[in-house]
Amino acid sequence: MVESQDRETVRALLESVRAAGRSALTAPEGKIVADAYGIAVPGEELAQDVDEAVAFADRLGGPVVLKIVSPDVLHKTDAGGVVVGVEGGAQVRAAFHRIIENVRAYAPDARIDGVQVQQLVPPGQEVIVGAVSDPTFGKVVAFGLGGVLVEVLADITFRLAPVSADEALSMLDSIGAAEILCGVRGAAPVDRWALAEQIRRVSQLVTDFPEIAEVDLNPVIAAPATEEPGPVERADATTPVGPPNWLLQSTHSDGLVRLHNHGIEDVRYDPYYTRLAYSTVTRPSSSESSYDNSVIVGDDPSRTDIAPLGAGDGWAASRHTVGEGVRVTSVVLAHGAGEVRAHLVTGAAPGTPVRVTGWAARAGVRAELLPVLGLTDSLTGVTGDGDTLFVALARLTGEPDPVPLAETVTVHSAGAGELRVRWSGGPGARIRLDGSGADVVPEVPEP
Description:
The protein has 9 helices and 25 strands. The protein has a 6-stranded antiparallel β-sheet, with no helix packed on it. The chain has a 4-stranded antiparallel β-sheet with strand order 1-4-2-3, with helices on one face. The radius of gyration is 25 Å and the shape is elongated. By secondary structure, it is an alpha+beta fold. The chain has 3 domains: 116 residues, ATP-grasp fold, A domain (Dna Ligase, domain 1, 2-Layer Sandwich), CATH 3.30.1490.20; 98 residues, 2-Layer Sandwich (D-amino Acid Aminotransferase, Chain A, domain 1), CATH 3.30.470.20; 207 residues, no CATH class.
């Protein structure tokens, strides 16, 4: 959630705009709002004269974009108030003067506050993230393909605000050209998690401030993911594994590894969380949603170096770093309606608190999460002297199961970072985790 001081910054700004009799924010004011809510925007400065513009461009480095800043000019391109790809003092000076001349000719009475000098973002897929006020439904967040052709393409999807992180992710797959985000003709897939966060934060902004009638971030450059997961060659690959309807999904875009037990067509339309979905997710729970499998170490919620480690017949593994050098290696082993979740914490000081999170129940869905190894009934524990293993059982079903979860599987510790798992009347496996990876070796029960 956004801290109160951030909301106060936005509230003070909106009050000053309202007091000035204006109904729209300038670009620098928009950046203040974006920064307050953690909405990513390029680096920028407001130049009052041409010398400042040259200095700011030099400070930002590389090519920049120059844009007119005027409360009376909302459509900058139409006014000739935008010049892209300007580099070097001479080009900046020429572009600055050209913008001022164009706007003076377009709107002679317009108040000009200056020229915005903005970092030029590398090329990428252009999308739009926004929000509008619907007279019937209230605040609605929007996502779709963006750029200058947004009105022509009209490929946009909507959700009621605020949206959770999972709902924001689902929006990426709800547009007609969703496959473009996965990478086509050799293009890299976009960073889905970063893009979904933009959507979620915009939705929270308009929820907190219903007086904001409209937000329009266009274009948003959906950059490629920076993480490079190992075992999956194509981003957002959905591959059948194990028993019928078991699926694995691993993505370049957000570094998450997921297992699902519903059909492949369901994944096409809802690839994240549905009525019977199981996942290993190496990112922290958000306040809006706890439909994930995460281990929280200490008080630092940060997650870096997220990457899948591998997957096989009914299992998936991933790892990430928490705070300063604490490594978490995770394995989910799934069978039927149940999972064994194992998390090895490496590099944490002895006595560091650990908490395992899981699903919260939705309507019609039964959630269950039980501690097995290293955890108390409240799913909390502490690290020991060295690598520490934490294990839990999980199940998410739509109907009550006749057999209690604890009776569906047996789990035995087989040494440091090693487990032996046997499903009742089903297969087993040996799991080995260390700070660098994970191995899962299936064990077929004897007849």
